Amino acid sequence: MAAVILKSGVHAIQEFLTEDFYNEYANFLYILYPMIGITAAYLVGKFIFKDVGGHGIPDVLFIISKKQSLIPRVKMYSRLFTSALTVGFGGSVGLEAPMVVTGSAIGSNTGLLMHLNAKKRTLLIGCGAAAAISAIFGAPIGAVIFAIEVILMEISTASFIPLLIASVMGSLTSMILIGKDSIFNFNFQETFHASHMPYYLLLGIICGLVSLYFNRAVRKTESALEGLESQSMRMLYGGALLGFMVFFFPPIYGEGYSTLNQLIEGKSAEILNRSPFFSVIENPYMIIIFLVLIILVKPIASALTIGGGGSGGIFAPSLYVGGIVGFVFAYSKNLFGFHIPLPLASFTLVAMCGVMSGVQHSPLSAIFLIAEITGGYELFVPLMFVSAISYITTTYYQKDSLYSLQLKDKGKFLPESKDQELLELIDITHVIERDLLPIHPDSKLKDLTNLVKISKRNIFPVVDEKKSLRGIVTLDDIRDIMFDASQQDTVFIRDLMHSPPEILLATENMQKAMEKFESSGAWNLPVIENGIYLGFVSKSRIFNAYRKRLIRQKQD
Prior knowledge:
Blueprint: H1 2-18, H2 29-49, H3 57-66, H4 78-88, H5 96-113, H6 118-137, H7 140-152, H8 157-178, H9 197-226, H10 231-248, H11 257-264, H12 284-307, H13 315-336, H14 344-360, H15 363-374, H16 380-397, H17 402-409, H18 418-424, H19 445-454, E1 459-463, E2 469-474, H20 475-478, H21 493-496, E3 504-505, H22 510-520, E4 524-529, E5 532-538, H23 539-555
Parallel strand pairs: 3-4
Antiparallel strand pairs: 1-2, 4-5
Helix pairs in contact: 1-4, 1-6, 2-4, 2-10, 3-17, 4-5, 5-6, 6-7, 6-8, 7-8, 7-15, 9-12, 9-13, 9-14, 9-16, 10-12, 11-13, 12-13, 13-14, 14-15, 14-16, 15-16
Keywords: CBS domain, Chloride, Chloride channel, Ion channel, Ion transport, Membrane, Transmembrane, Transmembrane helix, Transport
InterPro entries: CBS_dom (IPR000644), CBS_dom_sf (IPR046342), Cl-channel_core (IPR014743), ClC (IPR001807), ClC-type_chloride_channel (IPR050368)
Domain CBS: 432-490, 497-554
């Protein structure tokens, strides 16, 4: 229902703002609309909902990983309003990410209301995300795979059932309330020919390279906006630059799916109609130049929208750019008349899959999503092939997805494996051992010998009066002299102590701690907080805590 409300609201706003536009005149309101939308979205988010916009999906991934899947309640409805204002007024982003945030928040808070544990709340977050994508695209299979591939990462067979039910219900609800209208309203009838495969190979490589450009353009643009002094400056510059981009290139207004429909239906000349500078030009080469410029501009426009304070995601922009890449590829090849003609619709759709796979690192989601929303199951072979080639090309140069990179830019890191995820659930301060007996550096050997008699450990931290760690002494260090009476009063601890192989900080995560254990080869390492000695951490204590976490997770 949230997806239906959002889609209907955006379309109503766009129709109200653009229904009286005249194609033959320059639509100067295009310059103002995006700035108004971004500003309104930011102000509503900040002062009414206390939830400023942004990408959304990276935040959901971080909350699942680090915050026990507890998504703030306000996100169940805040993104409906802010993203409707952003996209409705021409923000060049998609509605999918805000809807994933909304659906995930509904799932998380439902789990909290029912007193479910973090693992089951995570599953409900996946269910909410799947229902949202299914409702928007009418693609229940693709939505389930998206939830598994992007949101949940790992899932058991039993957990697969709730995802299926949620996705089907999302699709049915949308179908009942607004009908079967799809984002792409054409009848795909082209057939696949094996002779096209060399071109699909080249298209896959191009999609991978375009994905790299897309990711880097988005991050650099957002970084440039963050470098501005205040949010008002970001809204001003972001909205103004976006407005001028939309003025020169009207097809990037809003989500842009209507442009893709025109390209797939073979009405490429119509995309120039709304442009004040290109509408009178019917040269096919100008169409190619115009579309190539849109490919270069769209990622920047999306980043300006979000970085300026708007709410949206890069899901739709990646599909949009991919579709234009595929059309330009096939259109250019056919224009030059080399070899066999290529079907424009097929290459447009397959490239949408390729760029989505490269940008989001979700090859399976891209395959099923495009196949479902277009009914183009005839294209499964090229969809699989191009998705794989694009993914390989992108990951060769860039290991992480755009979502992970955006989190890293903020100093936030997601675990790369299940082991790392479990380790990061262990707080280093909870596994500190405090039964090691400290000794002062000015003490003598006989004092240490007395400690050895009562200690159950073979390591003795050397701690001064300020509780600062000066070094350590092990039983092996004094084994040869500890019973030598002549040295009991003449040898001082400061002469025996040595530095530990590594020092752990109380603020470090467990992954960093394990790296220090591995690099040093030590079994026990001291923990320091603000220069104060706290105790030691041993590998055995960490392994025991890890084992308990693993057993608890399996029981859940």
